[in-house]
Design goal:
Elements: H1 3-16, E1 31-39, E2 42-46, E3 49-53, E4 57-62, E5 66-67, E6 70-71, E7 81-82, E8 89-93, E9 98-104, E10 109-116
Parallel strand pairs: 1-4, 3-10
Antiparallel strand pairs: 1-2, 4-8, 5-7, 6-9, 9-10
């Protein structure tokens, strides 16, 4: 019985994912979804490469396992999210054109979001950095 909601979630993500491949000016400000699945150091983002317009939001959804979404260039980073506990998702709105490579620190998977300007502005690649982790939780009043 527990498998039925999981099957519905996968079907919903697969139905939405192809629509997120070719954005147009009318799509700006929308939301695209990426499924995150896998456990124990093995997994995948689907789609692994997503093309969106400036102003759109990408929502990563845990279909299986625990995940993070960390930009290789340091422009965004999620806390952990998972299929079997809250939160189940992470969202980020892209406001600048470019290629944003990202990875999951828990399931060793990678992906890329290409953000295009419908007005035809240049697309650049976000520079990578070695600063790709941050403290996930610090209790109120804790010294660091």
């Amino acid at each position: 019985m527990r498998a039925f909601p999981r099957i519905l979630a996968v079907m919903a993500v697969l139905a939405v994912a192809p629509a997120g491949v070719l954005p147009g000016p009318a799509d700006a400000g929308g939301e695209r979804q990426v499924a995150a699945r896998g456990r124990g150091g093995h997994g995948s983002f689907s789609p692994a490469v997503l093309r969106i317009a400036v102003g759109e939001t990408v929502k990563w959804i845990a279909i299986e396992g625990d995940h993070t979404v960390v930009s290789d260039g340091g422009s965004f980073q999620s806390d952990a999210f998972a299929y079997d506990y809250e939160p189940h998702t992470y969202s980020h709105t892209f406001t600048e054109p470019g290629q944003y490579r990202y990875h999951c620190t828990l399931a060793q998977m990678t992906g890329m979001v290409e953000v295009v300007d419908p007005a035809g502005g240049p697309t650049t690649t976000e520079p990578s950095t070695t600063t790709t982790t941050r403290e996930l939780y610090r209790p109120s009043g804790a010294q660091g």
